[in-house]
Amino acid sequence: MTQSNEDRKALIIGCGVAGPVLAMYLQRVGITPIIYEGRSEPRDEEGFFLNLAKNGTDVLETLGIEDEVLENGHQSNRLVFQNHKQKRLGENPSETVVIKRGLLTKALREAATERGITVEFGKRLVDVQVPHDDMAIAYFEDGTEAHGDFLVGCDGIHSQTRRSMFPNAPEPEYTGIIDSGAFTHNDSIPQSDGVMRMTFGVDGFFGYQKVPTGEIFWFENHERKQAPDRAELETIPQAEWKEKLLHLHKDDHEEVTEIIRSTDGEIGKWPVYDLPALPTWHTKTVCLIGDAAHATSPHVGQGASLAMEDAIVLAKCVRDLENAQDAFERFESLRRDRVEEIVEISRETGNQKAPSNIVARKIRDLILPFFLKRGVENFEKIYSYRVDWAEPV
Ligand SMILES: Cc1cc2nc3c(=O)[nH]c(=O)nc-3n(C[C@H](O)[C@H](O)[C@H](O)COP(=O)(O)OP(=O)(O)OC[C@H]3O[C@@H](n4cnc5c(N)ncnc54)[C@H](O)[C@@H]3O)c2cc1C
After folding, report:
1. How far away, in angstroms, is 188 Cα from ligand 1 center?
2. Is residue 267 part of a domain?
3. 88-92: strand order across its sheet
4. What is the pTM of this model?
5. Residue 137 above 50 pLDDT?
6. What's the number of CA atoms in the CB half-sphere (13 Å) around residue 52?
7. CA distances to 87, 199, 274, 344, 349 from 206, in Å
8. Above 60 in pLDDT, residue 1?
9. Is residue 100 included in any domain, yes or no?
10. Considering the domain boundaries, does residue 352 fall inside one?
11. Is residue 392 part of a domain?
């Protein structure tokens, strides 16, 4: 006899972006989801900002939570590209919502808990076992375990679900770029009117938007060939890092250095990784989604949106197919080509941002008009993806 959805329990590992969105969609199809988050408590003030594109916000709209989740976001109407002398190079009419990452994950988590979904903190997954074909067991660092009909790893780029289930899977790869960024206030910088300004600088790339509250959201990318040790990066004092960025951008137009100089708060720094294509994303009762399956570099602003797309598509597959294995197989076949293409496009985009030397820079400047035109086409294709909830898979 087929098990009804009402009797099925899904273990969801990770309460970032994919986890709560998947949980809410699974609840919609009658399954009981429980989210296990490794952190001991929420850290909603932590982190940087991200751009949510239409393909991501549509997933929230279908769920009926777009307004509450994006309450603290700011509209970005287009990207304007300029060179280091502030000469306009082109623009991309991409509409996105700019939002602090911590506020996004807080709003998603609260939307889930308000709908009665359990989120357990302090549950760091250490192992997954599949004793037979219709169950999965999660083992946590605190010595506890949880049993479910299936388990979905939404535990991000360094996913323990992936490492437990696929010990030979490739590890995330450093892309040769350091991402940096922060928030500041500076009255001398004019209002952006919904425009995110991007500068192809001499030794790095710089983007910012001044949002209606007057706060400036900015980020910077520069090349560093060897992967830095994360701990080493974290121990660099703020003042030293700020000086380094000012030095890297010393030949760029005044707004860039002015924004960096006026930043008093912490400037975040992250080596950029993406994930080589995995041989598979699932077993019979365990599946990976979001960054755990296909982490992309941030250069086309798609990681969170793809995680949301994954969530709705996986829930549709679980709704329409007999068992978890069939659902996971269909899910992977529906998603793989799209996400792998975006990981590729994002990496290529990153390579154009941070040329390593003067020759590479001259070549980049020559091909930039072509690159920007192709960028618009790529963005249109990426953003126009829609998932129709009602349509069966
Ligand atoms: C600097 C930077 C800029 C970015 N910019 C953008 C952007 O502009 N647009 C965009 O769309 N995306 C952007 N991204 C990517 C985006 O943040 C991710 O793609 C997105 O968060 C992926 O969602 P996820 O749910 O798969 O993973 P995450 O959001 O990383 O969530 C994973 C969750 O799992 C938890 N977890 C981890 N390990 C365990 C464990 N063992 N047990 C239990 N829980 C665990 C974590 O604590 C976390 O809460 C950016 C990323 C970075 C680093």
Report:
1. 34
2. no
3. 88-92, 78-83, 195-200, 205-210, 215-223, 173-185, 268-274
4. 0.95
5. yes
6. 28
7. 14, 5, 20, 21, 14
8. no
9. yes
10. yes
11. no
What is the CATH classification number for the domain harbouring 330?
Answer: 3.50.50.60
Residue nearest atom 49 in ligand 1 by C-alpha distance: 16
Which ligand 1 atom is the nearest neighbour of the CA of 53? Answer: 11
- For residue 122, what pLDDT is reported? 98
Which protein residue has the closest C-alpha to ligand 1 atom 50?
Answer: 298
Q: Which residues line ligand 1 (CB under 6 A)?
A: 13-19, 36-39, 48, 50-51, 101, 123-125, 154-156, 160, 179, 270, 290-292, 298, 301-305, 307
Domain with 319 in it: 5-172+274-383
**Domains in the chain, number:** 1
Residue length of the chain: 393
Q: What is the pLDDT of residues 56-101, one digit of tens each?
A: 999 999 999 999 999 999 999 999 999 899 988 888 888 999 999 9
Mean pLDDT, residues 100-128 taken together = 98
If DSSP codes are grouped into helix, strand and coil, which group holds residue 289?
coil
Q: Ligand 1, closest atom to CA 19?
A: 25
| pLDDT value at 365 more than 90 | no
Task: Tokens 């960054």: give the residue.
Answer: 291
**268-324: pLDDT as tens digits:** 999 999 999 999 999 999 999 999 999 999 999 999 999 999 999 999 999 999 999
For a mutational test of ligand 1's pocket, the pick from 162, 291, 312, i.e. the residue with the most ligand atoms closer than 8 A to its C-beta, is: 291
CA of 181, closest atom in ligand 1? 1
Measured from the Cα of 17, ligand 1's closest atom is: 25
> Quick check: 330 pLDDT over 80?
yes
Residue in the structure block whose two tokens are 């703020």: 238
DSSP 8-class letter at 139: E
Q: What's the confidence (pLDDT) of residue 3?
A: 65
